[in-house]
Amino acid sequence: MTNTEKDNQHPEFLVETDWLEKNLSDPDLRVFDCTVIADLNPDPNAKFPFVFESGRTRFNEGHIPGAGFLNLLDELSDTSSELPFLMPGEPQLVNALGKAGIGGGTRVVLYGSAEPIWAARVWWMLRAFGFNSATILNGGWAKWSAEGRPASIDACTYAPAQFSAHARPECFTGKDEVLAAINENSVRTINALPPMMFSGEGGAVFGRKGRIPGSVNVPFNSLHDPDTGAYLPVVQLREIFDAVGVGDAERIIAYCGSGITASNDAFALAMLGYENVAVYDASLAEWGYDEQLPMEKG
User: Fold this and answer.
1) pLDDT score, position 26
2) pTM of the model
3) Right CATH number for 3-168 from 3.40.50.720, 3.40.250.10, 1.20.1260.100, 3.40.50.2300?
4) Interacting residues of 130 by C-beta distance below 8 A, sequence separation 6+
């Protein structure tokens, strides 16, 4: 990545709470809560370490006025796969997004109840299907409510729209490219999980402890202010990624457990102007259970 490209930052990928409150009456604006609730799986014999629940109940208890709810857990994931949160096929996605009211001429603001990882996942999915008018509410519902801004329990009234997909397949990748990248100096592979999971010394385990060989660690929550949940300033974000050698990588691959926190790292990289970024969609939910694929610890 050249320095010229590095200067091509995209602060417009975020909107602040002040701006959103002033623009809630915009007829072209579509605001969505994307929350999924994740907990450690109580079953020690379960294959995957986490269980997930839709955030709709929490949404119904209070949300940004006029906002709708995007069901990432079911409507925006491939439920035919045992792997959680895989990208759905184009027909499913087009139908779900159009039904929600997302289409040509609309501007979308995404948020979550706490950390922005779920909003970042939906943002990355929209990017992968060529929708370029999506933003994330900086700090999400937690910051909005902490500032005493208005809340509602009313149902969303967005009219259905025609969503047109223009696929960008380079936004996602699979295990073959990730495997080939292990010894490829031009590719930087980033693990978005907490340090203990990255090292294999603790935390949840997807099949096997550790990480994909050669990958570097940028924990998803290192990109946020711990008090507000807002993203760190661009200067600090760049320092974090520069510290792990993103530098002049020609290709960047982000992964995690199931493609969610990796999407958060990918979103931050997009804000910094990096273009050739992909999320390994199946991530360790696939890689960690395949004994033919290498892992490392420490």
Assistant:
1) 97
2) 0.96
3) 3.40.250.10
4) 164, 165, 166, 167, 168
